[in-house]
UniProtKB/TrEMBL annotation:
Domain Glycoside hydrolase family 3 N-terminal: 72-406
Keyword Signal on entry: yes
Domain Glycoside hydrolase family 3 C-terminal: 445-644
Catalysed reaction equations from the record: Hydrolysis of terminal, non-reducing beta-D-glucosyl residues with release of beta-D-glucose
Entry EC no(s): 3.2.1.21
Name of the protein this chain belongs to: beta-glucosidase
Family (UniProt): Belongs to the glycosyl hydrolase 3 family.
Organism in which the protein naturally occurs: Actinomadura fibrosa
Keywords: Glycosidase, Hydrolase, Signal
Pfam family for this entry, one: Glyco_hydro_3
Signal sequence annotation: 1-46
GO terms, molecular function: hydrolase activity
Amino acid sequence: MRHPHRRPVRGRVPATRIRQSAGRVGIALAIAAALPSAIAAPPALAGGPAAPYLNPRLPVSQRVADLLGRMTLEEKVGQMTQAERGAIDGDRSQITSLNLGSVLSGGGSVPADNTPAGWADMVDDYQSHALATRLKIPLLYGVDSVHGHNNLVGATVFPHNIAMGATRDPGLVKREEQITATETRATGPQWVFAACVCVTRDVRWGRTYESFGEDPGLVTSMTTAIEGFQGRGGRDLADPKHVLATAKHYAGDGDTRFGTSTSGTYTIDQGVTITDRRTFARIDLAPYVAAVRKRNVGSIMPSFSSVDWTEDGVGNPLKMSAHTELLTDVLKKKIGFDGFLISDWEAIHQIPGDYATQVRTSVNAGMDMFMEPYSAPQFEQTLLAEVRAGRVPQSRIDDAVRRILKAKFDLGLFEHPYTDRSNAGTIGSAAHRAVAREAVAKSQVLLKNSGGALPLRKSQKIYVAGANADDIGNQAGGWTVTWQGSSGNIIPGTTILKGIQQNASKVTYSADASAPTAGSDVGVVVIGEKPYAEGVGDVGNGHTLNLSDADKAAIDKVCGAIRTCVVLDVAGRPQIITDQLPKTDAFVMSWLPGSEGAGVADVLFGKRPFTGKLPVSWPRSEAQEPVNVGDKGYDPLFPYGYGLRTRR
């Protein structure tokens, strides 16, 4: 999802930036290990022991019906409203007065004490204000745990989804999200805005790395992520090792046409998917069918993007947040989704018309909860007026609230509204990081290996160059501590350089390749992108698929001076390497590995074999995009599924 995002588009207040040092990280982890297993028990709820909705032995459907029958219209509308913590933190009584159903942390929106204890204390205090309402309906807290609990300094940071698609390992994806769920819920949030099951069809898209790949079959196989978050259903959601998942962004966000975006300077993100219904179902809808019918996902986030059906001629796109056909007729009725829909960050503001029209249109189209980060009071007043005027039926409100309450009962929040901190000591643990390191190793794709350049030998004198060799912020990418991510030492972990140094004693490092190369046996050049997120990373919005001049210069110098030259690309999508590839002996796509750069070294030195396969086609030039497997005249530099294998 997006959150303090699109602030570059609409000029919102920048997200909180986190300043931290290695010492602070150590303190954070020490606090996590010392946390108590639980805090005080929740106060008694309203209605007395005879109230059916308070009886955990009754079926959830009966409890929902009972509670819904006790609620006023104002209380129902409150449940449909989600505010950003930055909007209510200074006056937390708004949670009570507005009957808020949910609060979220946008990217980089964190407590002043960005530690497990700081998070849990914040969420629990918010919860205490929700429990001060008449019916004491617990609060649902949501965060973007898109590659680990990535807002929390000290959490395990996994490779982004594009890398996980390269592993071709749905079981590993499930394990990753089980860990993410455990680390997230131990700090308070019970709901994550993940997994992204978009199908990326144009790598010029700034969200390419959030997708598992270009093939709907591959993405569908990775919906195991949802099971990792939620468990298998039943009582699993109430377990402190699970969270409510969100399949996003429904649907077609990765299939928009370049140049159709009207959001600020974006070029493709939030654009228009121009297609026919049959193709849309085959490519863009397929993962959601599995997410609903096989994984029983609890929530779905509609996309910012629009759909323009070619059956009735091109030129009349409709925003997904207003799309009755796709939200209600297809998703809820045909596919059978019984969870709730959560809008993206102020997404309804992109629907044509005044604010009342935007609210009315989206609610009637089927949206259930509204992410109105800084306009929650206005949203509630507007929706109340629309219902009272008869423009939004009461039945639509009841349907939305019924879906939201079901999730809260399933999560066990009425019995245990406060944070269970018993798993806080596992956050960033060695066991969790070992799984992330395995994911990194399995995601590495070997595109070229001439003359047995890889694996490296420990006895070799290794010359390491490139801006991304020793920058953990760059290798983690966007959605790391802040929305856009940032370069530098922003999280604990191991850089690729440190991983190499752990395997060889004769290592020379020069970021700009200015140090002498004489005497080196092999050169390793680590190139790639700097962090970005969403449409900010769109090609044409200040970004390109071409390598930077500095990266080209480093390849030219090192590969021209050292007999054996290996290049690693640390990026969220393929880059144009057509002219540089012949200069290399080996080329590895390392993606955005996250906190465990040692996993890259594991395959470089043969501790693990190269097994990764491309989840997207690799273009020969930027102009060749979009290029996808199955296209007429398909001729990429490297095809979908390509990847050389090595022995251990």
